[in-house]
Amino acid sequence: MAEPWQAGVEGRRHVTRGGARKRAAGAGASHQLVFVDRLVATLIHLRHDLPHSVLGLLFGVDRSTVTRAIGEVRALLAERGCAVPDRPGLRLRTLTDVFAYAQAEGVELRLDATEIQVRRPPAGLGGRRAFVSCKKKQNTMKATVIADRRGRTLWTDALRPGRMHDATAARNGGIAVCFRHFPDVEVFLGDGYLGLSRDHRGQAITPPRKPRPGALPGRVEQWERDRHGHSSDRITVEHALADHKRWKQLTRWTHRRDRLPDTYRAIAGPVSDRTANA
Fold first, then answer.
1. DSSP string covering 108-173, please?
2. Which residues belong to any copy of the Transposase Helix-turn-helix domain (predicted)?
């Protein structure tokens, strides 16, 4: 990971200077924080949400140095994608990657959405109400996450305003196109995705519908067993979401909203690395 970071730093310098390289690669002043320290500082910030000034004291550098380091390394972590179990060299970055992997390996997917509380947009801005979640009664942003049967994170998308319905967020992510191109992939979903189940029968699997009032007792009991079985199959994606929410920055986001998508992907990558090797 250090090579892309070094290349990015050098590239930005040349763009700022407005000309070609004038000295050998690696020349010039050394960084106050080596790459490993930058990575550790970023992971501490993501996990515990420590202020940059506190991290500066821990590493013996100025706050601005930590701020710049976190911005650079967070972008690198977000670009890495999610690890694949038993495939060390493979990373999943897009929804198409996940569906292609699932069809090739015969993996059943579990999909769900989670909401993260964010700051309320200032008054007078357009689209202010889009962040008000009808379920949470808070200003939130919504992430869609896919996991496998063992709760290992395989993918998460760019976050969307919390007022958007879960199924709409999945459609905007391109799940309908993936269902058409990968007809053998099955995805276990919750009650909020009944529309996807109607449009993609046999692929989008939602809980069975409750029998009508007055149905035979045996049918009601069978429905309860089927619903419990579906919930047991789908619960692993809830475990994946719980792994993400252990990182303090995802319990309540207090920074700029446009940085949350990269932050979520930067957290999902290390979590997938850990669970893929479990």
1. PEEEEEEEEE-PPPPTT-TTGGGGB-TTTSSBEEEEEEEE-TT--EEEE---EETTS-HHHHHHHT
2. 32-82
